[in-house]
Amino acid sequence: MFRALRFLAFLAILIAAVLWLTDSPGMIRAEWRGYQIETSAALMIAVVALLMGASALFYRGWIFLRRAPGTIATAWRERRRRRGYEALTRGMVAVAAGDPAEAKKHSKRAEVLLNEPPLTMLLSAQAAQLGGDDKAAEAFFKAMSERPETAFLGLRGLLSQALAKGDRDRALDLARRAYRLRPASEWVATTLFDLQAQSGLWLDASVTNDELGRRKLVDRATAERRKGVLAFEQARRAHADGDPAAEFKYLRRAHDLAPDLVPAAARLAHLLAADGKDRRAAGLIEKAWMTAPHPDLAREYLIARRADDALAAVKAMEKLARTNPDHPESHLALARAAADAALWGEARKNLEQVLDAADHDGYAGRALRLLAAVEDGEAEDPARAREWLLRAATAGPDNAWVCAHCGNAAPEWTVTCSNCGQFDGYSWRTPPHAGLHGGALEGRADVVADGGTARLPAPEGKGST
Question: How far is residue 86 CA from its own chain's centroid?
Fold first, then answer.
């Protein structure tokens, strides 16, 4: 609309000028070197206007011809670049779709059309990786790691390859290099922390964990928990090195930061009791029992309470159970102590409470085996004892240390999962499958296996079945 109005305005001005010239006749005379030119003013103005127009057209044409080679070359390069990016896009789509042949074809086309190695090398590396050509992928990733603009991507690709091959030393070195380039990358920092933990580099892992917390790449609770777990591992190392003072220092730190870490609480209580600090050891276990009851804590509690006879053990377990009276582990601890003291009725009452509970999975097998021991101890109905043992064989697995990441179950707590390497992944609960992960119980002669169902042994002590 605006352009139309502008054109009409220009046309009106032109018509007005023509009318003005028509209404204002005049003559123009020019004489030069014997030549005379006479014409009207209107014609002279028209001729000058035409000459100006022709000059402008000639100038534009000359500029066009002068710029034509560059314009054509630019258009050709732009078309080539556009086709290259189309090939790059299709290659990325092929990688995402899992089509190695298509990805490789488009990566080669992109290399030819684009003079941008960072982009094409990444696609080529991914295409080679997808096609199973690890050597070619590694070559591309190495080339990328040597260029400043793609160094991080190259190191990440090499790191992923090293992790896939299980080459922990090389992966650790690459993770350190990548971390120096991008310390704010959550993936790199977490991978570096996991590798340091798997390599037993507890001090390095502590530094990395502090950085993760400072940069808010992990929440504060997670960072504090990790500090506690790492302190416990440092305590274990101090114990292996024969440094009891350092072990005790690290155990206190571990328990303060991770009070529900059962192995740390049990070991600290053991050292306190050995040092004659029975009340502190018992109080520590009572506090831990409120949130994380475990058979190891019950055994250490008997030591802390100096329960040298069966009746003293019953009284000690009654006191411990009062801190978490409804938990199945409390009933099992009471039942075992009562059975050891030949208090068959008390033992049976607590075991029935375990079996009647809605959440008795993981505890039923131990309860049934203890019931069999009670029946055997009373010596009144041997057939009934065999019946409890048969039921125990099909009751499902006992609680174990189960990895939250892969479901692997292990008889003892370790800082990293023996199957997937997850840091602090174990928790005391019912395994997600009836049989423990292959190799988890290797070398354990005390494992009870009834009816093909693998389970951990019942708590050690008198009356074990």
Answer: 33
Asked if the model's pLDDT at residue 396 lies above 70, the reply is yes
Residue 156, both tokens: 């990440």
* pLDDT tens-digit map of 157-197: 899 999 989 999 999 999 999 999 999 999 999 999 999 99
DSSP states along 122-158: HHHHHHHHHTT-HHHHHHHHHHHHTSTTTHHHHHHHH
With a CB cutoff of 8 Å and minimum separation 6, the contacts of 455 are: 365, 397, 398, 447, 448, 449
Among the residues of 258-309, which ranges form H helices?
262-274, 278-291, 295-304
Rounded-to-integer distance, Cα 287 and Cα 255, Å:
11
Q: How many CA atoms lie less than 13 Å away from 204 in the CB half-sphere?
A: 18
Strand pairing partners for 429?
A: 400
Residues, the chain: 465
pLDDT confidence band for 98 (50 / 70 / 90)? low
DSSP 195-209: HHHHTT-HHHHHHHH
What's the CA gap between 85 and 103, in Å, rounded? 14
DSSP state of 341: T
What is the tens place of the pLDDT at every residue in 422-445?
999 999 999 986 444 333 333 333
